[in-house]
Design a protein that fits this description.
Radius of gyration: 33 Å
Distance between the termini: 109 Å
Strand order of the largest sheet: 2-1-5-4-3
Number of helices: 14
Oligomer: single chain
Structural class: alpha+beta
Length: 416
């Protein structure tokens, strides 16, 4: 009898060992499949996340969703176009994290199993294995956990690269806005994959209440990606600074950033174009000026471009160089016409504005006939493209002509 019991015990042990061997072989197969599958070419997938979801779905025969740290689906396999389950709120995601940390096993949520990718206790992302009519096997759970470790490594690597790029970008932006040799700037920016050639604009932004972390910097990076604009973004104290390639942005940059930050209590200033690295400090100074004007106005939230400041460039600063730029901006084309034709259009415009647009008194002050005045004003409209009936245009032109009177008439003019 004892001999039979010993034989049964041996048989049970053999069966247990056989099951263990089969389980280990299955796990090895799963590891190999995931390792090989996620290191191959992306194929039709846009990212490694998509490739990982596809391989895991193929292994388990189940739909797979990969989420970012905020619960948004970043990749999926085996699902339709609609989200297969509702996104969890912050409190529910926190509960899931606590359960995962306590058990080390996937957490059951409605319609899915959830495994978290963590780094030093911080959630980087998650993999969700959706329920089907088939029961979840131990192999399915192992595959989910192993895939999550692979995701953890990938997301940690991306975060490390992003932090390194952010630090390098911060150092580079600081040097660019302070002044940097063009050749060195080209080498340094190329190393970060940024093209410093062509027109660049500096954008500065600050949000209320002041942010002392990289919240606004990260939001601006996402903004430029969404707007398909190449930019280097950094932080200086409680202000974000960006060097942006291409034509100047408008209201859309503030709209997108405010949406990402979920707050419209911010102000932005955009400097004028810089055609080489040596001009970037000037664009930075102009962006600060525009930001200062915006933040100090009654409409303090939004974006202001330096070239839209108009008269405020004079009212806010006593800088002679800025005053000259303002005059050239509004009167440069007329000065160019006077210089090339030997005409006197700037003086005609000045007198016309001084006399409040009255034809008789303007013609009398210039000692010309009314028809001559009409011809000159028609020429002014054609040359400048300005609408002299527009109140804001008249104001800027009037201030510019007043400044022109105290400026040497042989000073450089600007011809657009």
């Amino acid at each position: 009898m004892s001999q039979l019991l010993r034989r049964d015990d041996v048989d049970r042990r053999i069966l247990s060992l056989s099951a263990t061997v089969l389980e280990l072989e299955e796990r090895a197969m799963i590891r190999d499949a995931l390792d090989e599958g996620t290191t191959s070419d992306l194929g039709d997938n846009d990212s490694k996340d998509g490739l990982l979801a596809e391989v895991l779905s193929r292994l388990t025969g189940r739909p797979i969703c990969i989420e970012d740290a905020f619960g948004h689906i970043s990749a999926a396999a085996g699902i339709g176009s609609r989200r297969p389950y509702p996104r969890l709120g912050a409190a529910a995601r926190s509960r899931t994290t606590q359960l995962w940390l306590a058990s080390g096993s996937p957490v059951r949520e409605p319609r899915r199993l959830v495994a978290l990718a963590l780094s030093h206790g911080e959630v980087l992302g998650a993999i969700c294995m959706l329920e089907t009519d088939k029961p979840v096997t131990a192999g399915n759970v192992f595959a989910l956990k192993y895939a999550t470790r692979l995701l953890e490594v990938e997301l940690s690597h991306r975060r490390s690269l992003a932090r390194l790029e952010l630090r390098l970008s911060r150092d580079l932006v600081d040097e660019l806005v302070c002044g940097m040799d063009g050749a060195i700037a080209g080498i340094r920016t190329e190393a970060l994959g940024y093209d410093i050639s062509g027109p660049q604009h500096v954008l500065v932004a600050e949000w209320q209440p002041p942010r002392t972390d990289d919240t606004v910097v990260v939001a601006l990076r996402r903004t430029f990606l969404e707007l398909r604009r190449s930019a280097l973004v950094s932080r200086r104290s409680d202000m974000a600074v960006a060097v942006v390639r291409g034509d100047p942005l408008g209201a859309e940059v503030f709209t997108v950033a405010a949406r990402i930050l979920r707050s419209a209590t911010g102000a932005m200033g955009i400097g004028g174009p810089s055609l080489d690295a040596a001009q970037i400090p000037r664009s930075f100074s102009e962006a600060l000026h525009a930001l200062h004007i915006r933040a100090g106005s009654s409409d303090r939230y939004g974006v202001t471009r330096f070239n839209q400041l108009g008269i405020y460039r004079i009212l806010d600063t006593a800088g002679g160089e800025d005053l000259a730029g303002y005059v050239d901006e509004w009167l440069g084309t007329l000065q160019h016409a006077d210089h090339s034709r030997g005409s006197d259009l700037v003086q005609t415009l000045a007198q016309y504005l001084d006399h409040g647009g009255n034809y008789d008194s303007t013609a009398e002050s210039l000692t010309i006939h009314r028809s001559t005045l009409r011809y000159r004003l028609k020429s002014i409209r054609q040359i400048t493209g300005f609408d002299l009936a527009d109140p804001e245009t008249r104001l800027n032109l009037h201030v510019a002509t007043r400044a022109w009177r105290i400026r040497p008439h042989d000073a450089p003019f600007h011809a657009p």
